[in-house]
């Protein structure tokens, strides 16, 4: 059972090196990277234009551009550690992850790469899970593995680890918040080593990157994005698992929740998801019946914001008007285009310049604000 993937390209060594330089440069995130690549055709031309675009955006000084030497050193360290840096159009990049707006331009992959071409179901939940929750997560994961699915999760204590442990033999994918050499929590290294034989670990972070609090929500978008759907087993109010469920819904993924006791705070988040329309799950068959029709459709790379054209031939009046409309409160791109009375291509170009200058922040749902 494989996820039908449109990914067939293989990058040249030079393009992989230049793409690594581009994504490791200051103020270049996944969306900006994709816009630059689409507009300039390849990473080398995008790198040449970075200083000029940042200057046009009002950068106070030249931003750091990742040097060729640093990128060569990172690629060599990855090879030594057994990590492949896979581009989103290449064969072992998870097909569903490639379709999200902010897919990592290069994904660090370690383990059995073929695991990433199979359909995935995410199982997430509480770190301080109940015994019953841990047992159910393991049973659910094992049954999904036996049915040919790959279970993907975040290696966290509790539900995540229970799901991974139950599917070491059938194949499981661990999504890391830090670099491949900076595993969190540290006591999980034995589990990670065991799952790499038939499964894989993925990360968008460079080697040496120690995970910080803000890296975990970033990681969660990869868990949901790579999957057909996300199953929440136990989650308190305001938990990271609910962030993953919200991201899954925004990405058009299925959201499943396991009901729990109304007097157990660890079940409150999952019970709320069910009230909000998540599919109630009491066995693996509930999930399989919901995702089977989705699997039968080819994966479409939906139109993304970075597919839209850019127009850098902006006059000072347009630029001033667009910048004046921006402030600390997020505004939608559509509202900005309408209020600025400028073409979408010009507005997108000005936003890209501001972002490269370190002056713009992008939020979920297509919202932007000035920093």
Note the topology.
Layout: H1 13-23, H2 30-40, H3 43-56, H4 68-81, E1 84-87, H5 95-98, E2 106-111, E3 120-124, H6 131-146, E4 150-153, H7 159-166, E5 172-175, H8 189-195, E6 200-203, H9 215-225, E7 229-232, H10 240-250, E8 254-257, H11 268-275, E9 279-280, H12 284-295, H13 316-325, E10 331-332, H14 333-340, H15 344-356, E11 360-362, E12 367-370
Parallel strand pairs: 3-4, 3-7, 4-5, 5-6, 7-8, 8-9
Antiparallel strand pairs: 1-2, 2-6, 10-12, 11-12
Helix pairs in contact: 1-3, 1-4, 3-15, 6-7, 9-10, 13-14
Structure description:
It contains 15 helices and twelve strands. The strands form two sheets. The chain has a nine-stranded mixed sheet with strand order 1-2-6-5-4-3-7-8-9, with helices on both faces. A three-stranded antiparallel sheet has the order 10-12-11. Helix 11 (268-275) links the parallel strand 8 and strand 9 (279-280). By secondary structure, the chain is α/β, with parallel strands linked by helices. Among the domains are: 111-295, Rossmann fold; 308-370, Winged helix-like DNA-binding domain superfamily/Winged helix DNA-binding domain (Arc Repressor Mutant, subunit A, Orthogonal Bundle). It starts with 12 loop residues before the first helix and ends with a strand. The mean pLDDT is 92.
Termini, distance in Å? Answer: 46 Å
Radius of gyration: 21 Å
SSE arrangement, N to C: HHHHEHEEHEHEHEHEHEHEHHEHHEE
| Overall mean confidence score, pLDDT | 92
- The number of helical runs is 15
For the record, the CATH architecture of the domain at 111-295 stands as 3-Layer(aba) Sandwich
Beta-strand share of residues: 5-15%
Helix proportion range = 40-55%
Low-confidence stretches: none
Query: What is the β-strand count?
Result: 12
Shape annotation: globular
* CATH class group of the domain at 111-295: Alpha Beta
- Characterize the biggest β-sheet: 9 strands, mixed
Instruction: Give the strand order, joined by hyphens, for the main sheet.
Output: 1-2-6-5-4-3-7-8-9
CATH topology title of the domain at 111-295: Rossmann fold
Oligomer: single chain
Structural class: alpha/beta
């Amino acid at each position: 059972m494989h996820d039908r993937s449109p990914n067939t390209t293989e990058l040249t060594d030079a393009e992989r090196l230049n793409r690594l330089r581009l994504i490791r440069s200051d103020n270049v995130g996944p969306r900006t990277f994709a816009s630059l690549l689409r507009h300039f055709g390849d990473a080398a031309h995008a790198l040449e234009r970075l200083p000029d675009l940042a200057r046009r955006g009002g950068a106070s000084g030249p931003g750091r551009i990742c040097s060729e030497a640093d990128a060569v050193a990172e690629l060599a360290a990855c090879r030594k550690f057994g990590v492949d840096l896979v581009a989103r159009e290449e064969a072992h990049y998870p097909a569903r992850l490639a379709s999200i707006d902010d897919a990592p331009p290069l994904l660090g992959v370690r383990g059995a790469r073929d695991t990433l071409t199979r359909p995935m179901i995410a199982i997430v939940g509480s770190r301080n899970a109940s015994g019953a929750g841990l047992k159910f997560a393991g049973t659910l994961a094992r049954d999904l593995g036996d049915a040919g699915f790959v279970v993907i999760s975040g290696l966290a204590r509790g539900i995540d680890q229970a799901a991974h442990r139950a599917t070491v033999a059938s194949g499981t994918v661990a999504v890391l918040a830090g670099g491949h050499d900076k595993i969190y929590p540290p006591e999980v290294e034995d589990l990670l080593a065991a799952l790499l034989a038939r499964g894989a670990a993925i990360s968008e972070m460079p080697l040496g990157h120690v995970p910080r609090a803000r890296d975990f929500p970033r990681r969660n978008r990869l868990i949901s994005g790579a999957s057909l759907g996300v199953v929440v087993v136990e989650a308190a109010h305001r938990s990271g698992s609910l962030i993953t469920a919200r991201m899954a819904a925004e990405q058009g993924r299925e959201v499943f929740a396991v009901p729990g006791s109304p007097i157990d705070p660890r079940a409150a988040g999952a019970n709320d998801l069910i009230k909000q329309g998540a599919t109630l799950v009491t066995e693996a068959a509930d999930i399989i019946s919901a995702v089977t029709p989705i699997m039968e459709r080819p994966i479409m790379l939906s139109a993304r914001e970075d597919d839209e054209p850019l127009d850098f031939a902006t006059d000072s009046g347009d630029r001033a008007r667009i910048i004046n409309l921006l402030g600390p409160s997020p505004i939608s791109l559509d509202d900005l285009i309408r209020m600025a009375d400028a073409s979408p291509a010009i507005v997108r170009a000005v936003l890209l310049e501001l972002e490269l200058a370190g002056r713009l922040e992008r939020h979920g749902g297509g919202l932007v604000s000035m920093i």
